[in-house]
Amino acid sequence: MASSGGARSPAAVVLDDLVDVRDRVAMLQTVLQESSPGATVEAGELVEGMMAKLSSALSAVLGTGDGSVASSSSGAGGGPGRRRRRTGAASSGPHRRSSSRGRMKSPLIKTVTATTLTDGKSWRKYGQKQINDSTNPRSYYRCTHLPDQGCKAKRHVHVSEANPSEYTIDYYGQHTCRDPSTFPSLIVQGAADTAPPPDCANLISFAPINGANRAFTASTSTSAFAHHLMKEPVDHHPMLFSQFSNYSSSPPAQEGIPSGSSSRACHERFMQYAGGQFVDITGRSTSPLTVGSAPAEYWPVVGVAGVDMDAGAGMDSFPSSPSSLGFMSGSLGGSFGNTVCDDDLFSFDS
DNA sequence: CACATTTGACCTAA
DNA sequence: TTAGGTCAAATGTG
Fold first, then answer.
1. Is A130 within a domain?
2. Residue A249 phi/psi, 5° resolution?
3. For the packed helices A10-33 and A37-62, what is the interaxial angle rounded to 10 degrees?
4. Which residue is nearest to nucleotide B5 (CA to C1')?
5. I need a surface site. Which of A26, A191, A195, A238 has the fewest CB within 10 A?
6. A33-63 residue pLDDT tens
7. Do A1 and A336 form a contact (C-beta atoms < 8 A)?
8. Does A49 map to a domain?
């Protein structure tokens, strides 16, 4: 990506990258259609999701998106102030909101199944609903930082019917907050230990947190990637510790686990973006129960480019807002560089 | 007291 | 009309 283009605007760079990725995905889709039908179904769904994601991103870049930035209603500017009287709310006019409720929601970013609800982010439950086709209720969470930072990330959680000990979590919207506990730490490391197969271009790999057994598993739609994404437990890298140790952390809130303690947040994410491909990403989280963080595809590229598109829900790992990627400052100018691979690398010399 | 969760009402898209 | 998603008062918890 912005290999040498210091002159190009970040948006342009991102746009090019997204277009490129989309094209690649399209090609992959074509290839898959020609391979075995069995594996194709899943992969096909994955590709569809990716394409949707890319389209969404492109729309955002082009300014044609749904304007997830239009935070007029979501309390970004400070949630308070909207009190709705229960009685006669709808008819009493003032409290009625036309488009700020209901189905206005961020696009689904990711669906994962996990044995714990801890994903490295701080969530606040705002509702629970018995869903028609499910025996278990669905719980609604939004980022704890919605009021103070306007973070619109949400997630829907419901107990897996197939396996009650697991949760199926749908992530919506991206985290724009700067929760220290989830502040991403990116590092490019040699792809040595977890080199994905060559056919896994644009692959992001997240290692399970702490090597703990509680790890996200791939969702139905992304299981194809799961194997690579959750590859292996990886130790945190000292250099990251030192580099980001200034961020304190607030432990992620989790169901049944009050977020009170505070500790350092050593959230680490490693990724490598080389030659237009994400080679490897590993992460570590602080919470003992934590699962790894991030569900697979967090589109770090978005963060790099600073495009505010809905990339990662539950985005524990890759806040896509430029602000939350401060340590990558300088990268926008195209100076991705000091890392292992070629021009499309994250810069850490903040 | 501050913040999180619960829960029924409200709202909107399908 | 219904189902899903959200709001916000009430309640719980540290």
1. no
2. -125, 155
3. 160
4. A125
5. A238
6. 555 544 445 565 555 556 555 555 555 544 4
7. yes
8. yes
Pairing mode, strands A248-249 and A167-172: unpaired
Q: Which two tokens stand for residue A335?
A: 């100076």
Closest nt to residue A106, judged CA to C1': C5
Structure tokens at A22: 């989309």
Residues pairing with A137 in the sheet? A130
Residue A97 lies in a domain: no
Q: Give the helix/strand (H/E) hosting A240.
A: helix A238-244
Nearest to A313, CA basis, from A80, A19, A111: A111
Question: Which nucleotides of strand C lie within 7 A of protein CB?
Answer: 3-9, 13-14
Is any atom of nucleic acid chain C found less than 7 Å from the CB of residue A6?
no
Check whether residue A126 has its CB closer than 7 Å to nucleic acid strand C: yes
Is residue A342 classed exposed, middle or buried when 0-12, 13-18 and 19+ CB atoms within 10 A define those classes? middle
Which residue stretches of chain A have pLDDT < 70?
A: 1-105, 178-350
